[in-house]
Amino acid sequence: KSGGRGRGGKAARPRPETASRREAAEAAQLARRVVAEAPEKGTQDATAELFSELPLSRATQAALTWNKWTKLTDVQRAAVPHALAGRDVLGAAKTGSGKTLAFLVPIVELLFRERWSAEDGVGAIIITPTRELALQIMQALRRLGTRHPDLTAGLLCGGKAFSEEQAVLGRLSVVVATPGRLQQHLEQSPELDTSSLRALVLDEADRLLDMGFAPSINAILGALPTERQTMLFSATQTRDVSRLASLSLRDPEYVSVHEAAVEATPRRLVQAYVVCPLADKVNLLWSFVKAHLKQRTIVFVSSTKQARFLFEVLRRLRPGVPVMELHGRIAHDKRTAIYSDFLKKKAAVMLATDVAARGLDFPGLDWVLQLDCPEDAATYIHRVGRTARFRMRGNGLLVLLPSEAPAMLQRLRDAKVPLKRITIAAAQARSVQGLVAAEVAADSHLRYLAQRAFASYVRSVMLQPDSEVFDAAELDADALATSYGLPSTPRAKALEGAKSREESSKLRNRDRKLQRLKDAIRSKQDDDKDGDSDGDGDSGSDSSSGSDSDGKRARQAAKARAAPASEQELESDSDSDSESDFGGDAGDATDLLWRKEGGGAKADDGRAATAAELLAGIEGQDMPGWQRARAQRVTEGAIETGRRAAGGADAGFKQLAAELGASKGSGRKASAAAVEAHAAAVAARLQAQDGADRERDRLRVRAKHRLERLQARGREDEDDDDD
Q: Which residues lie in Low complexity bias regions (predicted)?
């Protein structure tokens, strides 16, 4: 498209020779003024306050006046004089500070002074991270170049057929592009002539790198001429930005007018925060929207799925103000239409992700509500920077969970962001949980969106790098599900993993202490029984000592094998022949059955313990239904095997007791050989059963670990690209 009077991308009509000579004379005069009025290198002490004081062409001055761009902002006052002089510029400035004109004015003037036309090829390229920002820059360029008939410009950012973009490449003098599309044209479109390129602009350089465009940027820099003017603008100066600057800039002028500022955000921006429990977030959103029905508001959330769900909820509840959504899953043409429609409305609410947080200009925006905590202070600044732009006023409200507030507020204080705490007035607080739950229950699609939004929010918290701010273990999943109107809490695998990691050390220590206490109590009970047996009579004491000693050792060995499976699994993640999934083998169950008189395991109240109770006591934590069912079947089988073994053992012990009683009555001592033979038979029977049980347990543990690996692999392959 044409940035000047020519339309449809066609070259402007030839002008009279007198006009051409007049423009040539003006260009020569401006070139002399630029050299004479250029500031000294390394200085930012420009005295100009108005654009009219700078060496600019009459056409540019007229366009600036027509658009009421007359007064220079701080970054424009510092950067434009150096850029007009043809120097490379590395600029760092607050969002909404006027960076766009800081590079557009020098580009337009450079091409005017060199009498550039479309026949000369592409004279300037502007690279930006998103289509929306590219469109916004294009709109500003049209307004600035409206009186430059030879200036033609075009967008290369996708959203239309590749061949359609190729068809106009030969008629462009300025290109505004996203990195991927520009790289594709440089590699596949011979019509794109950059051999005479004069200027390159990298806008939002930090965002370009954050979005993973570094390989494309490096490829583009390698394909462009090195003899050019380069301007790089970034809201934050990171190590990656510095590395990019060293590769693309030559002896640049560093412009950082806000580096020593007391605040990192505009002075006309009123900022506050509120601490809100997770269960009340949707209520707070509704209350806020109802309290600002005549204003324009952008609501930032952390994921696309949340934006879709909350948009549908608000749309169905009909708050009395237009509701829109803007996120990466919307097609480019539709996103452009939504952005334009929002600008035209006097009052509206837009649910957005961070796709709208960088570079987009929303003139006259009243509020920025950050419903989800930003990942860092820089993201907060970019979000809230959508309002209070270009000397206008604006308001920002940040919603924090109680677990997020301390660390996040400290991050913002370190970044020079002034915030004051507010509370929601009781008269304005409204609850819509019942209405949301009714809508979700009545519509299966909305319920699906709610479940996806739930999982997406949990995943976004898990993926945040700052664990001091985002603590997944503190996340109340039940409260989140309730606020989304879900009748039950969906299973969140990532959340379960986070909580299990935090609790693992506690469980490990707790289980060990509890097991040591149980072992001590059992040992004391066994010792008491041994003492009672020794006092039955002199004749029987000698005969039974060997049996009692062997029985005590057998019971202690069974106790060692009956250690809780939860403790064993926490101590080792590898397969082991001695490990058990759900609390031991048949020998362990037999030992449990021997503990009380009557030959059966007992619950705390004295009744016979069920498999489920043994399972809960051994595992010590809840399990999914399918896993618990499998565990119960295994445990019931172990109990039945133990009962059979115990029955045989009890019969043998009854026979032994009869022999001992007969010996005592007759005054004869029991045969030590008979006792040893019986103990050997019992030990052999238990050893044979123990070997089979150990093999079964080894196979069960291996199957369990294989299932966990498959589940972990499935979680990694989940489709969450839009988060």
A: 557-567
Instruction: Summarize pLDDT for 660-686 with one digit per residue, the tens.
Output: 455 444 444 445 566 667 667 777 777
* 94: region left, alpha or beta (phi > 0 left; psi from -120 to 50 alpha): beta
- Give the DSSP H/E element, type plus range, for residue 227: none
pLDDT reported for residue 5: 38
What's the CA gap between 151 and 2, in Å, rounded? 7
Residue 513 CB-half CA count within 13 A: 6
SS3 at position 4: coil
Domains, the chain, ordered by start = 22-255 (3.40.50.300), 269-490 (3.40.50.300), 494-713 (no CATH)
Max CA-CA distance within the chain?
144
Residue 220 to residue 126: CA distance in whole angstroms: 12
Q: How many CA atoms lie within 13 A of 12 on its CB side?
A: 21
Least Cα distance to 4 among 152, 115, 199, 117 occurs for 152
End-to-end, the C-alpha distance of the chain in Å comes to 34
How many Cβ atoms are within 10 Å of 606's Cβ, its own excluded?
Answer: 7
- Structural contact between residues 495 and 470, judged by C-beta atoms closer than 8 angstroms: no
Number of Cβ within a 10 Å radius of residue 19? 11
614-633 CB burial, b ≥16 within 10 A, e <16: bbbebbbeeeeeeebebbbe
| Torsion over CA: 20, 22, 28, 33 (sign) | negative
Asked if 302 and 372 touch (Cβ cutoff 8 Å), the reply is: yes
Q: What is the pLDDT of residues 222-249, one digit of tens each?
A: 999 999 999 998 876 777 788 888 888 9
Note the pLDDT tens digit of each residue in 555-583: 554 444 444 433 333 333 333 333 333 33
Helix (H, G, I), strand (E, B), or coil: what is residue 325? strand
Contact in structure between 378 and 351 (CB atoms under 8 Å): no
Burial class of residue 346, CB neighbours in 10 A (0-12, 13-18, 19+)? exposed
Top-ranked range on mean pLDDT: pick from 203-212, 498-507, 648-657: 203-212
Residues counted in the chain = 723
Q: How far apart are CA 434 and CA 282, in angstroms?
A: 11
Task: Calculate ∠ Cα 473-477-479, nearest 5°.
Answer: 125
3-class DSSP state of 324: strand
The secondary structure of 234-262 as a DSSP string is ESS--HHHHHHHHHH-SSPEEE-TTTT-S
* Cα separation, 398 vs 300, whole angstroms: 10
How many Cβ atoms are within 10 Å of 712's Cβ, its own excluded? 12
b (16+ CB within 10 A) / e for 586-602: bbbbbbbbbbeeeebbb
Q: Which two tokens mark 271?
A: 């900022």
Sign of the Cα torsion 32, 36, 37, 39 reads positive
- How many other C-beta atoms lie within 10 A of the C-beta of residue 680? 11
What stretches of 204-327 show up as alpha helix (H) in DSSP? 205-210, 214-223, 239-248, 281-291, 304-317
Say how far apart CA 563 and CA 572 lie, in whole Å.
Answer: 14
Residue 400: phi and psi, rounded to 5, are -125, 145
Tell me if residue 87 falls in helix, strand or coil.
coil
